[in-house]
Amino acid sequence: MGRQIGLIKISGKFNDLSFYKSKDGYIVRTKGGASKARIKTDPAFARTRENNQEFAEINHSGKWIRTSFRNITGNESDALVVSRMVTQLSKVVKLDIINLRGSRKVWMGLSTKESKKLLKGFNFNIASILSKVLKANYHVDSVSGVVRIPDFIPQQDLVCPASATHCRIESAWSEIDFTSGVIHSSISPAVSLVLDQTKSSVVLTPAQAPTGTGILFVVLKVSFFQEINGQVYTLNNGSLNAIEIVSVS
Question: Is the pTM of this model over 0.85?
């Protein structure tokens, strides 16, 4: 690595040289690293190829999961949701005990109870964890996709932002066939409640029931709102809303 000392400072690439600015000044260095062709064929890079193949599998699977719930997560996922999901799916793929390294699949890893636990409890918004927001017990029916919260008292069973006056609870399921890429999903009508002491049984019934094909994920979401002069507004642009995968089957 060399340092540029001329009067004209250059940034960019020229032939095999790269020019760039660093904290130490303007630097020039030669092109390094193995070529793509070498990585694809050289036996010395077999482990690299295996890692790349599994990383692609993990990214693809993670995108399917996130995209399938876009109707309920909206823009409320945190900035690191992709990398956090990659971390969990990296653990899942290692639980595939059938395929060899480099060919392991997320869906094969998800065939075990242990792996399902790695995704159950995954929060799309790390700034608002569902278990810290919702204190009431809830039940998920993995056959119908229905989520029930019996004897729910908003003011007692929710840890709410100080300025919130209303809450909204909804759920969604997504069934993903990771081998074919076919995805089925459905969302429940939202239940909106005033944050008071009124007790009610919340039943979140999706528009459609799961088909029974693929791996079923169920998400539960709690949103907060503020009423001002009869108009209800989203609180903090949804940044305080909790969205969690509550069932994987």
Answer: no
What are the residues whose beta carbons fall under 8 Å from the beta carbon of 103, sequence distance 6 or more? 53
SS3 state at 11: coil
Amino acid found at 234:
T
Q: Position 236: which residue type?
A: N
What pLDDT, on a 0 to 100 scale, did the predictor assign at position 4? 47
- 86 φ/ψ angles, rounded to the nearest 5 degrees: -60, -40
| Residue-range domains of the chain with CATH | 1-32 (no CATH), 37-119 (no CATH), 130-248 (2.60.40)
User: How far is 94 from 101, CA to CA, in rounded Å?
Assistant: 9
Q: How confident is the model over 71-100, as pLDDT tens digits?
A: 999 889 999 999 999 999 999 999 999 999
HSE value, Cβ hemisphere, 13 Å, CA-based, for 195: 21
Q: Which amino acid is at 70?
A: R
Q: Are strands 242-248 and 139-140 parallel, antiparallel or unpaired?
A: unpaired
The pair phi, psi for residue 110, each rounded to 5°, is: -75, 5
Look at strands 12-14 and 17-22 and give their pairing: antiparallel
Query: In a 10 Å sphere around its CB, with 0-12 CB exposed, 13-18 middle and 19+ buried, how is residue 28 labelled?
Result: middle
